[in-house]
Amino acid sequence: MILLNFSHPLTGEQRAQIESMAGRSITHCIEVPAQFDHDRPFAEQVAALADATGLTPTDWQTEPILVVPPALNFIAVALVAELHGRTGYFVPIVRIRPGQDSLPPRYEVAEILSLQQIRDQARKRR
Prior knowledge:
Blueprint: E1 2-5, H1 12-22, E2 28-31, H2 42-51, H3 57-62, E3 65-68, H4 73-87, E4 93-98, E5 107-113, H5 115-123
Parallel strand pairs: 1-2, 1-3
Antiparallel strand pairs: 4-5
Helix pairs in contact: 2-4
């Protein structure tokens, strides 16, 4: 699967956790830093962020993709919308959390959220 990381660099341990939870190997890890200019519209910056992955329209629609979203909520939600437009579905995302009692702070993979499944379940509550 292709792992798109729009957050901090991942450690080998974190990548192994992701592979274990996903039940698939990471074939490509594409790191794209998400540093935005708050004085410019986010929609155009999010499109550029997705473009920076180098994925083709065919890749977006046919390859298994997993995303580590940026930490800033406004960028993350706009990116989810952009990626939905490119893939045709909500891509699953990796949730990272701070590890307990670690100095300096260490982060671990908490879970993989199937946004499409969350959306599908929410439809039943309409």
